[in-house]
Amino acid sequence: MVFLQGFFANNKLRNRFVVFLFVLSAAPVIVLGVMIFSFIDRSHRSDVALIAQQTLAQKEEEINAFLSDAASLLSLRVGFEARAEISKTDQEFLLNGFLQETPSIEEVAFINLQGQEITKKT
């Protein structure tokens, strides 16, 4: 301990040289640390953005698939051109079948041309 006190106390040039070498050796480590930190931060942000885009694309595909399935269930083709009302029991049968076929839909109804609900199922 006495040697170190005497080593640093006696020579100002030696002290400057030791401090200079310490700063010179520590500077690259500090610079590389800052560069690595910024690189990790930038790559993490791009990864999060990529995951968010992939999730949105997947949800869009799921919604489109659901809507196309629902649209295919809703298409009802009539074999004749004359206008005929569907009986109340047939309407309830169709609505019950539609609700059983698509459990994600909670409520369906038949609406006439005047905009009034005729039959409604939940």
Detailed description of the structure:
This protein is 70% helix and 7% strand. The N and C termini lie far apart (88 Å). It has two domains: 75 residues; 37 residues, no CATH class. A hairpin with a 5-residue loop joins strand 1 and strand 2. The chain has 122 residues and is mostly helical. It has a two-stranded antiparallel sheet. The protein is built from three helices and two strands.
Which key terms come to mind for this protein?
122 residues, mainly alpha, 2 domains, 3 helices, 70% helix
What's the count of strands? 2
Uncertain stretches of 5 or more adjacent residues: none
Total helical segments: 3
Q: So what's the overall shape?
A: rod-shaped
Report the average pLDDT across residues. Answer: 83
Order of helices and strands: HHHEE
Helicity level, as a percent range? Answer: over 70%
Radius of gyration: 38 Å
What portion of the residues fall into strands of 2 or more residues? 5-15%
Largest sheet features: 2 strands, antiparallel
Query: Can you tell me the number of structural domains?
Result: 2
Biggest sheet: strand arrangement: 1-2
Q: Distance between termini?
A: 88 Å
